[in-house]
Design goal:
138 residues; alpha/beta; six-stranded mixed β-sheet; 3 helices; 20% helix
Length: 138
């Protein structure tokens, strides 16, 4: 995670977006509670060197709600933004650096899940390359 990174988490309900975020925050050293921002729109986590914002736009009815909520100020070079349901704010959100697509393996409601990672910018590609370099060899 580097300041300025925007990570969009896409997928149906129950595919693991919040669970992924919880695991990521634990890996980054966060020891406190990790709540879903479905009703609060954003949960904030302070780390050394940056603030991580975890957004959930599931309840948006109109992309303009993003502006109305004043959330645009959080998307800056000093923060990391994880966004669940970015399609609910399509057209107003800044472009993602990394996109994660969560899916049920074997169809909807399956017990297994899969995730596809895609770098959409230079910083997104660098993030994914660093992740690949750290992955243990099977």
């Amino acid at each position: 995670m580097r300041p300025g990174l925007k990570v969009y988490l896409e997928g149906d309900l129950g595919t693991g977006k919040t669970t992924f975020t919880r695991g990521l925050l634990r890996a980054l050293g966060h020891a406190g509670a990790v709540k879903s921002p479905t009703y609060t729109l954003v949960e904030i986590y302070v780390f050394s060197g940056y603030i991580l914002y975890h957004f959930d736009f599931y309840r948006f009815n109109d992309p303009a709600e993003w502006y109305d909520a004043g959330l645009d100020e959080h998307f800056n070079e000093a923060s990391v933004c994880l966004v669940e349901w970015p399609e609910q704010a399509a057209g107003v959100l800044p472009e993602a650096d990394v996109r994660l697509r969560f899916r049920f393996a074997g169809g909807a409601g399956g017990q297994s899940r899969s995730v596809e990672l895609e770098g959409l910018s230079g910083s997104g590609e660098r993030c994914l390359n660093a992740l690949r370099a750290e992955r243990p060899t099977p």
